[in-house]
Amino acid sequence: MTDAWHGRACLVTGGAGFGGSHLVQELVDRGARVTVIDRDPIAGKPLEDMGVEDEITFVHGDLRDGPLVRSVFSEKPFDVVFHLAADPIVINSIREPAAVVDTNVRSTTTLLEACRLADTAPLFVFASSGAYYGDHFSPEPIPESHEPGPAANLYGPSKAAAEMIVRGYGRAFRMPVTACRFMNTYGPGDRHESRLVPRALAQLAGGTEYDFGDRDDGSTRLDFLYVGDMARAYMSAAEHLATGGSEIAFNFGTGTLTSVKDVAERVSLAYDGEPREPLFRGVRTGPVRQKRLDVAHAAAVLGWNATTSLDDGLAATAAWHRAAVPAA
Fold first, then answer.
1. Residue pair 67/43 in contact by the 8 Å Cβ criterion
2. How many domains does the chain have?
3. CA-based Rg of the chain, rounded to a whole angstrom?
């Protein structure tokens, strides 16, 4: 597949962030010509860790800025657009719901409109989310055919709304589009401590109490996907579109449920080999929250499977964190 990507012009929105930076590195390694749009500069972002700044074109700006986006498209045609830019932090969607919806929905529409107006519409791969399906309490894997569900915050609905707009542009204007739905991605470069693995590593490095607050009692069971597997998933989806594929959405994950308490215990072992008892102070008032995606379709159609085990992924993440964040 290396030859298929060599020389291809790719736009990665949100490419300076956690997931985007790993996709950018994979594209650069395989010979693609990459442009990144991000509203945050590279300094201090995960892309800086990759060491590929000199091999990409970086545009600093907000995707809601229509003239800026159109100017980027006027300068060069793109073969593939990977739309990862979003506000993915759940707590933001509770504190500032309107801003998160505006960021996640309007930026998607602005970008799609630029693609529609291009001389040749590029392949469009949208970073959706397992949050599309809403809250879930069954251990059974969720297929792509499952309808979007209600959620306790505005992040999932904002991604579902954006995905519907992607579908609408694809159908109305015959644009090649698809959506990638992921669950709980983790890995090197993620510094946002509202998420489980970065919070665990920050506490371990800081020598503070291994405390995960009152949002959960530790029993929630989720699927955790390594970021390198996610990068391959995006590219597999684009390759599918390039060969005439028309599937509108794919689930990606390991298909395995692991409790958040178990993950926290494994992070501790990965960090320094020391077992620790994580403190989860939440009080469960209903059934255990459980959520995993049915990934059989991605395996059958794309030939994609997650190849990084949870322990191997946590070991790589802990090694990165020890090198990047000195212990207290």
1. no
2. 2
3. 19
Distance CA 328, CA 205 (A): 6
What size, in residues, is the chain?
A: 328
**H or E element at residue 320:** helix 310-324
Query: In this model, does residue 51 exceed pLDDT 90?
Result: no
**What residues contact 22, with CB distance under 8 A and at least 6 apart?**
46, 50, 187, 189, 227, 228, 230, 231
Domain identity same for 174 and 286? no
Q: In sequence order, which residues have a C-beta less than 8 Å from that of residue 107 and are 6 or more positions away?
A: 13, 62, 63, 64, 85, 86
Using one digit for the tens of pLDDT, what is the confidence trace for 255-295?
999 999 999 999 999 999 999 999 999 998 889 999 999 99
Q: Residue 207's CB: how many other CB atoms inside 10 A?
A: 8
User: What span, in angstroms and rounded, lies between the C-alpha atoms of 136 and 122?
Assistant: 35
Structural domain for 53, as ranges:
2-186+225-255+292-307
Q: Are strands 185-186 and 225-226 parallel, antiparallel or unpaired?
A: parallel
Residue type, 137: F
Q: Which residues of 90-121 are buried (b: 16+ CB within 10 A; e: fewer)?
A: bebbeeeeeebbebbbbbbbbbbbbbeebeeb
Binning the chain into helix, strand and coil, the percentages to the nearest 5 are 45, 15, 40
What confidence tens digit (pLDDT) does each residue in 170-217 have? 999 999 999 999 989 999 999 889 899 999 999 999 999 999 999 899
> Does 177 share its domain with 282?
no
Write the CB contacts of 75 (distance below 8 Å, at least 6 apart in sequence). none
